[in-house]
Amino acid sequence: MSRDGTATVAGPIRVLVADDEPMIRAGVRAVLATDPGIEVVAEAADGHEAVELVRAHRPHVAVLDVRMPRTDGIDAAAEIRRTLPGTGVVMLTTFGEDDYILRALGIGAAGFLIKSGEPEELLAGVRAVADGAAYLSPKVAARVVAHLASTGAGALAERRGAARERVAGLTPREREVLAHLGGGLSNGQIARRLHLVEGTVKAHVSSVLARLGVDNRAAAAVVAHEAGILPPPPPEHR
């Protein structure tokens, strides 16, 4: 997988689900089963088992609970991203786990979902990450920005000012691309929205990541939210 997270999935999206609560796993599996283009290939009850099953099944996406016994979701995600970069990682979090979200962001997790969120968000997140995009549920994005503002990194106004300064170095087209990154769109989706060739979008994404000084699309999405760059609404279908 390239630095901008580009991935191509042929056939059903193969997913591993890891959570230490059987009822949560069953619920996630049931939601994913509503999409005929998604196939759950394995379930794990802890992070160690999740890593082993990812090695065995090579899924396109691993959906990991943040808090699990033996090996937690963050350490499991780090190991998966280090040794099996072809598998994208979606983290399932609850309110109050902001520090875990920031740690997961730092090790390259591409999707962040709140367990109490809408089922449609889970489907959208898995599809986005499988397609090489990043997906931050609106609630997660808001909490990340608010939490960053409450840490030693500075007040919210200062962080927003710093984010705007970083974004100021982008070209108008790169700002457009960043806005769509903030909305969780893949390179192909951005290309269609902006009427560009996908290879051109890929180059813009790489440039955006380099100019912002971030390593992945999810981190770029956080900068977009901090800078107040909101994803544009989807086009109306007539």
TrEMBL record:
Keywords: DNA-binding, Phosphoprotein, Transcription, Transcription regulation. InterPro entries: CheY-like_superfamily, NreC/VraR/RcsB-like_REC, Sig_transdc_resp-reg_C-effctor, Sig_transdc_resp-reg_receiver, Tscrpt_reg_LuxR_C, WalR-like. The modification 4-aspartylphosphate is found at residue 65. It holds the Pfam family GerE. It comes from the Bacteria. Residues 163-228 form the HTH luxR-type domain. Residues 14-130 form the Response regulatory domain. The keyword Transport does not apply. This is Two-component transcriptional response regulator, NarL/FixJ family. CDD domains: LuxR_C_like (cd06170), REC_NarL-like (cd17535).
